[in-house]
Structure formats: C-alpha cells, structure tokens
Design goal:
This protein has 193 residues and is α/β, with parallel strands linked by helices. The protein has five helices and six strands, in the order E-H-E-H-E-H-E-H-E-H-E. A six-stranded parallel beta sheet has the order 3-2-1-4-5-6, with helices on both faces. The structure holds nicotinamide-adenine-dinucleotide (NAD).
Length: 193
Amino acid sequence: MVNFSLEGKIALVTGASYGIGFGIASAYAEAGATICFNDLSQEKVDKGIAAYKEIGVDAHGYVCDVTDEAQVQAMVAKINEEVGIIDILVNNAGIIMRKPMLEMEADEFRKVIDVDLNAPFIVSKAVIPGMKEKGHGKIINICIKRRKIVRSEEKSASGNEHAKEACKRKPCAQKAACIMVATHKTVSTNKLK
Ligand SMILES: NC(=O)c1ccc[n+]([C@@H]2O[C@H](COP(=O)([O-])OP(=O)(O)OC[C@H]3O[C@@H](n4cnc5c(N)ncnc54)[C@H](O)[C@@H]3O)[C@@H](O)[C@H]2O)c1
C-alpha cells in the first residue's frame, strides 16, 4: 500500500538488478513510476529484467558502467529516446569493500572512489540537462548512516560516504534538480550474507 504517487514519472536507479537498488526500484514501480536500471553485464541486466517481471514490473534494463562517462551519456540518450526524460535518478550503484585501510591497496580505494563518488557526478551530469528542460527532477544518492560514526578501526570505504554527502552541496543542485542523500543501516543483501 503506497501513500504517494509516482504515476507518470520515469526513474533511473543505477546498479538495480538486485540488492537495495532493486528494492528501491520495486517500491517506485509500486507507486506508479516507470523503471530504468543499469548494471555491468548483459547477464546481470537479463536477471534483473526477469526479477522485475516476476513482481509484475516491466523494467527497462541497460548495460552500462557508471564510471564511464561515454557509456553513461549514451545510456541516458537511449533512455530519453526509448522511454522519456528521467524525472528521478537514484545513484545506487556502489562497491562495498569491507577491508581495513591498512589492508587495502591504493588501486582498490581508487576503484571505490570511482564507483561510489565519481559515478554519481557522471550520471547526475548526464541526467540534469533533461531535468532542467522539464523544470523538475530529483537526484538521490545512497549512503550509509554509519558514515557519521568514524571509529579508529573504521573501514576506509567510509570516506567516500562522507564525500557522497558533500556532493549534494555542489552547484549542480541548482534550480532544476533537487539532490538528496538517503542513508540506511546495514541491509543484508546477497553480497553480505
Ligand atoms: N548493503 C548495505 O548495508 C550497504 C552498506 C553501505 C552502503 N551501501 C550502499 O548502498 C548501495 C547498494 O548496496 P547493495 O548492498 O545493494 O550493493 P550490491 O553490491 O548488492 O549491488 C550494487 C549493484 O551495483 C552494481 N555496480 C557496481 N559497480 C557498478 C558500475 N561501475 N556500474 C554499474 N553498476 C555497478 C553491481 O553490479 C550491483 O548490481 C551501494 O551504493 C552501497 O555502497 C549498502
């Protein structure tokens, strides 16, 4: 039972073939939104489309690496053409690297920053022109609530969550798009089991 409507809205939820993204997209679909999502491989996208079908959602899936600006621009252009201009973007795609800082390679940290921080910038940049054209839009960056509690043994990944929150204060939030940060406690998705 939903107490609000997203009827007529087009939502892009990144990395949403399963996990939290799938849950968010399913709830949006229940509220009436048309769902677009992407993932890294055709196999993941096909599995995602099948999972949405199982719950009665006709989702539009795209193979796209959110760290690759050319791929993201091409995906958004395709969505504009095939589905329509995006009203809601959820920057959900992310990496959870549960490693203490001293055990993490710099390249691993760069990868986390690329997916968790640079990608929301890249995808938002691709989507905001359409939102400006429409005169409205919502961008939601998924973070973790724990980011506010930094303990001495804290995983190094928490740094990117601080940075993700800082994104909402960047100038791209001006006028057409409203940028929010959604936080949550640990959710037991397949990866964490
Ligand atoms: N599960 C948790 O408790 C938890 C904790 C902290 C933060 N988060 C954040 O919540 C979000 C979702 O978490 P989840 O547990 O569902 O993760 P998950 O690993 O289950 O799913 C993430 C999805 O993103 C996709 N993805 C990863 N890199 C990508 C890329 N470069 N391009 C496109 N897609 C890519 C993956 O293939 C996967 O489908 C992430 O941003 C994660 O950092 C989750």
